[in-house]
Write a structure and sequence with these properties.
Layout (H helix, E strand, L loop, with lengths): L1 H17 L5 H6 L6 H8 L49 H6 L27 H9 L2 H15 L8 H9 L10 H15 L6 H12 L11 H16 L3 H17 L15 H24 L40 H21 L9 H16 L12 H28 L3 H28 L6 H19 L15 H21 L4 H25 L35 H4 L35
Length: 618
């Protein structure tokens, strides 16, 4: 007891030293400690080896002193060796890799330099640190500004002037107000964008938001609650907790339906106020998140255009408006809503492509006219964009949101043609689909690398997250072509294509090297591309060496880079998880076991089996 009293006294002194003005009694009233006994009891008796193959666990983000096992992949991109990450369908990158014999070792014992213990002073209490940071206006203002400058301009979940007014008066709000989870997750997103990827501050902002969310939030429906679930769900995906984020986005979707956000306001409404417009904005962000998560993970897209009545948001500048204001006249310049309007229209086309081509069963025979029609819709979408989506003279803050929407369109178009070649039965159609897919991949690499060179000062962590994923996926599409078996009379790629591909892959590698300065995921993606190149070179050298024991030597004599693929379908490890959007890319290729071995974090995943939120030491 004496030891506990001495520790309490030292903690009290530390708190006063960090923040002399803090009221300890008030701080204790608002600090909640999870009941450890309940956590442990919930996990008792669970045998990790016996859980369902699709069960998963994503423990809380970077608890102080906790050994982070791996940096998980928010895009569910590539496999792990030995654990599951929830169900990933055919559009996820992981689905491709499951079809490749011996691609991933069943269990990897290697570590990367990126896996490390978070060093914390044992005398530092995270709650005390949080209170100290919350008492520093300069820190909070910087995080809020980062959120609205770099995040809300792509996904305007919050009305800035309304939030800032509440932010200034936050001390008058009740402790359990539904605004507080939003406040803390805004701080967490701002901290992430500014590069706060380690240390206790990020964890504490997220933990503070989570601690203020409870079952009571599900017992009523408000727009604030939908916004809170959207923010925390998208944040968790970007912090490599995709399954947990997926659940939060699902809750937001259901609650949005319950609030009727998919319908226009009743006809009896006297005026179309900004509040009604905010409902439209939030609905279409829900729609875009559902679409993106579905395509990324290969899971069904829930929203259907057949029951949606809500109009798209208008391109208005509402910075000086209150929620009760009458809507201002739409602007012909970029606004906070410009990117989400374009994104929502793109997501509608993407859902159609996903359901008809990308996720279609392989038994379905595709008429290439369908793919051409869908490709035409994407081109029409791009041509219909306002002039500020192609103009050079735009505000700096708009360059990032505009670029991401363009990269998304290219990615969907690339996956359209990749899925098409999988479903075509006529050789000429397969070749056309393949050529189109490669063309879009080259175009993607060109656009992303050019942007990263021209606007280095605009690339923050959030923008780098998208650039890394889309650039890596496009480079994979080009790289794995060399590992595929070709027919004896197949003369593609010709020398011109080879030179163009080599140049594109080189540009992508240089860009990833630049992004890797502040992005560990880019470093790991670069390592994967190095391994692909090494294996391709080994294959080339092997094929150039005559061998009497190689039965297919004559077949591949004109294609020294290519090797026959072993017809082994039942030896593929089932204990790894890969991004659905990347998985299908590796069909019919030959790989060694070490391509992804030892990578901890994006572009692979490694999620604990149990469908739980238990920390590892529970």
């Amino acid at each position: 007891m004496d030891q506990i009293e001495r520790r309490c006294a030292s903690l009290t002194a530390l708190l006063h030293r960090l923040n002399p003005d803090v009221d300890i009694e008030d701080a204790l009233k608002t600090t909640t400690v999870p009941p450890r006994g309940l956590q442990a009891a919930a996990y008792d008796g669970v045998n990790p080896a016996s859980v369902d193959e699709f069960e998963w666990s994503e423990s809380s983000l970077g608890s102080p002193g906790e050994l982070r096992r791996v940096g998980l992949d928010g895009m569910a991109s590539l496999p792990t060796g030995g654990t599951e990450a929830g169900y990933l369908g055919s559009s996820a990158g992981s689905s491709i890799l499951r079809t490749v014999p011996g691609l991933i070792p069943e269990q990897s014992g290697l570590e990367t330099d990126r896996r490390k213990q978070v060093s914390e002073d044992p005398n530092q209490n995270p709650d005390l640190l949080l209170q100290a940071h919350l008492g520093t206006s300069a820190i909070l203002d910087g995080l809020v500004n980062a959120y609205f400058t770099y995040y809300n301009t792509s996904y305007p979940i919050l009305h800035e002037s309304t939030f800032r007014q509440q932010y200034r008066n936050r001390h008058r709000l009740q402790d359990r107000s539904s605004w507080h989870p939003i406040f803390y997750i805004v701080l967490a997103i701002g901290n992430w964008i500014l590069g706060g990827t380690s240390g206790s501050r990020e964890c504490q902002y997220y933990s503070a938001a989570r601690s203020r969310m409870s079952m009571h939030m599900l017992e009523s429906g408000t727009l604030l609650t939908v916004q809170a679930f959207l923010l925390i769900g998208n944040y968790l995906q970007k912090r490599d907790r995709p399954n947990t984020g997926y659940n939060f986005i699902g809750i937001a979707y259901r609650m949005a339906l319950g609030l009727g956000l998919h319908r226009e306001p009743p006809a009896g409404a006297k005026t179309d106020s900004l509040f009604h417009e905010r409902r439209r904005v939030v609905w279409w962000i829900v729609y875009c998140f559902d679409s993106g998560f579905g395509i990324t993970t290969g899971r069904p897209v829930m929203a259907s255009d057949s029951f949606i009545e809500t109009c798209l948001p208008r391109n208005i500048d509402d910075s000086a408006c209150a929620l009760t204001s009458i809507l201002p006249t739409p602007s012909d310049r970029p606004t906070t809503y410009s990117a989400i309007i374009a994104h929502a229209r793109l997501a509608s086309i993407g859902n159609n492509i996903y359901s008809n081509v990308i996720s279609a069963p392989k038994e379905n025979i595709l008429n290439l006219k369908v793919s051409r029609s869908l490709d035409h819709r994407l081109k029409a979408w791009r041509l219909s964009l306002p002039v500020y989506f192609s103009a050079q003279d735009v505000p700096d803050w708009f360059r990032g949101p505009r670029a991401v929407v363009g990269w998304k369109e290219q990615n969907i178009r690339m996956m359209l043609w990749w899925g098409s070649q999988r479903l075509c039965s006529i050789i000429s159609d397969v070749e056309e689909a393949q050529n189109m897919c490669h063309y879009v991949a080259i175009e993607t690499i060109q656009d992303i690398t050019t942007f990263c060179l021209d606007y280095r000062g605009n690339i923050h962590v959030g923008l780098s997250w998208y650039a890394t994923y889309f650039l890596f996926q496009a480079t994979i599409v080009l790289s794995i072509h060399y590992l595929k078996p070709h027919q004896p009379l197949d003369m593609s790629p010709d020398s011109v294509n080879k030179e163009l591909w080599a140049l594109s892959i080189s540009r992508a590698r240089d860009c990833l090297a630049q992004l890797s300065q502040n992005n560990e995921a880019a470093t790991r993606c670069l390592a994967v591309l190095e391994r692909i190149r090494d294996q391709s070179e080994r294959s080339q050298q092997s094929s150039l060496t005559p061998s009497a024991t190689r039965p297919n030597a004559s077949v591949h004599a004109d294609h020294p880079q290519l090797q026959p693929v072993p017809q082994i379908e039942d030896t593929i490890p089932t204990t790894f998880a890969i991004d659905p959007a990347l998985q299908i890319l590796f069909q019919d290729t030959e790989w060694n076991n070490d391509i992804f071995e030892g990578l901890q974090g994006f572009p692979i995943t490694d999620e604990v089996e149990a469908f739980d939120y238990m920390p590892p030491n529970a």
